[in-house]
Amino acid sequence: MRGWRTLSLQARQMLAASVALVAFLGLTGYALDRAFVQTAQNALRERLANLANAYIQESEFDRTGGFISPEIPPDTRLLSPGSGLYANVRGEGLSWDSASTLGRSLPPVELLKQNERRFEGPLRIVDARGLENTVYAYSIGVVWESPVGDLPITLSVFEDAGQIQDQVNVFRRALWGYLVMAALLLVLVQILVLRWSLLPLRDVERELSRVRQGRSQRLSGRHPRELESITESINSLIESERSHLERSRNTLSDLAHSLKTPLAVLRSRLDADASHEELRAEVGAQVQRMNEIVSYQLSRAARSGHALYSAPLEIEPRAEEIVAGLEKVYASKGVFCEFEIDPAARFHGELGDLQELMGNLVENAFKWARKRVLLTVTVEPAPDNRRPGVSFVVDDDGPGIPPEQVERLLQRGVRGDERVQGHGIGLSIVQDIVAAYRGELTVSKAPELGGARFAVRFPPAY
């Protein structure tokens, strides 16, 4: 069973197609063979029927009721013993056999009624040497008007079955010979067709090999429609792993760079022969700073990664939790947040990313809003079998953001107003999450509330 499961796609298709081909050609050969045998038997029947009719028309009876056969029969083989063609006449008190029956023991004939006809065979006969043979028989019942009255007789014509069997054998040899040749040709064509049809899979395999060897960055987009979903998913996995590795390297680099300053400060204090109390205070401050740096970098690394095929998360209950908490924090401002969330909206990613995304967008709106914030989440339908997309739009009635300031404010550590509490990294975190999920972030003016509008769109994906 294990061997069957490990068969290649080409082997599976070849095996299935070969079984179907053998079954089809076998049934076709059997049907043609039976059709030829039936046709040969029908032809023999017609030939024997014509011979029997001709024999009756050319025969007569004498005054005593004796049967007189024609001097020259319809077929001269009736005059040659053992020729394979035989005839006899049977009636009450009447028995006649053709010269060809000499040394042959023909099967008994049942007397037939007038105009009754019968075709039988193959029937067994025995020759003078005791050898068995088979014949086909055609019999016809006739009432003959003779000088002594009406005589019911049955005339039978026999032909050796070997002749029709020889024809069948010749046909079968030709038939199965041609079918075998056709099978070999079809198998060859089938192999070529399978190799051609599986060529795109071999191309994918070669491209994956180049990716593993580092000679290529991703799979090409030149593949049949049926493979597009697979190649796109593989490319997504490749890019996801590459981005994860890049983010890990960046995080370690940022962590190392951030720790340089506290360590340098400690080193300088040691070199300056600071007092015990000063050194103790400095060590405590720098250790606290390094602890904050490590905590921040770890949380950032956790936020930056995501599972490519995560289970879909409901958005509405998470949005309610975030907004409820922010309304308590900003209760002194009296900011009110409204919802317009599609119940069918789902986020295909990690819960932490969803919370960071909505939390930073909505908190930024709460900081700058005067009284109103509007959160809108809509579903973007997907064609074919793609995963539907989702859009997040957060509007506020604050002062808004000038278009020329958008790029600067999205940079890490930059704040729109130094008097407003914050660290200037919230929107940068949003950008990192959007980039990780291959989404789009746009900043514009809110058409209804008049403040800023932050729109995040995650398009449909495979």
Automatic annotation (TrEMBL):
<feature type="domain" description="Histidine kinase">
    <location>
        <begin position="254"/>
        <end position="462"/>
    </location>
</feature>
<keyword id="KW-0902">Two-component regulatory system</keyword>
<dbReference type="InterPro" id="IPR058619">
    <property type="entry name" value="PhoQ/CarS-like_HATPase"/>
</dbReference>
<keyword id="KW-0547">Nucleotide-binding</keyword>
<keyword id="KW-0597">Phosphoprotein</keyword>
<dbReference type="GO" id="GO:0005886">
    <property type="term" value="C:plasma membrane"/>
</dbReference>
<dbReference type="InterPro" id="IPR050428">
    <property type="entry name" value="TCS_sensor_his_kinase"/>
</dbReference>
<keyword id="KW-0472">Membrane</keyword>
<dbReference type="Pfam" id="PF02518">
    <property type="entry name" value="HATPase_c"/>
</dbReference>
<feature type="domain" description="HAMP">
    <location>
        <begin position="195"/>
        <end position="246"/>
    </location>
</feature>
<keyword id="KW-0812">Transmembrane</keyword>
<protein>
    <recommendedName>
        <fullName>histidine kinase</fullName>
        <ecNumber>2.7.13.3</ecNumber>
    </recommendedName>
</protein>
<dbReference type="InterPro" id="IPR004358">
    <property type="entry name" value="Sig_transdc_His_kin-like_C"/>
</dbReference>
<keyword id="KW-1133">Transmembrane helix</keyword>
<dbReference type="InterPro" id="IPR036890">
    <property type="entry name" value="HATPase_C_sf"/>
</dbReference>
<dbReference type="GO" id="GO:0000155">
    <property type="term" value="F:phosphorelay sensor kinase activity"/>
</dbReference>
<dbReference type="InterPro" id="IPR005467">
    <property type="entry name" value="His_kinase_dom"/>
</dbReference>
<dbReference type="InterPro" id="IPR003594">
    <property type="entry name" value="HATPase_dom"/>
</dbReference>
<dbReference type="InterPro" id="IPR003660">
    <property type="entry name" value="HAMP_dom"/>
</dbReference>
<keyword id="KW-0418">Kinase</keyword>
<keyword id="KW-0808">Transferase</keyword>
<dbReference type="InterPro" id="IPR003661">
    <property type="entry name" value="HisK_dim/P_dom"/>
</dbReference>
<feature type="transmembrane region" description="Helical">
    <location>
        <begin position="175"/>
        <end position="198"/>
    </location>
</feature>
<keyword id="KW-0067">ATP-binding</keyword>
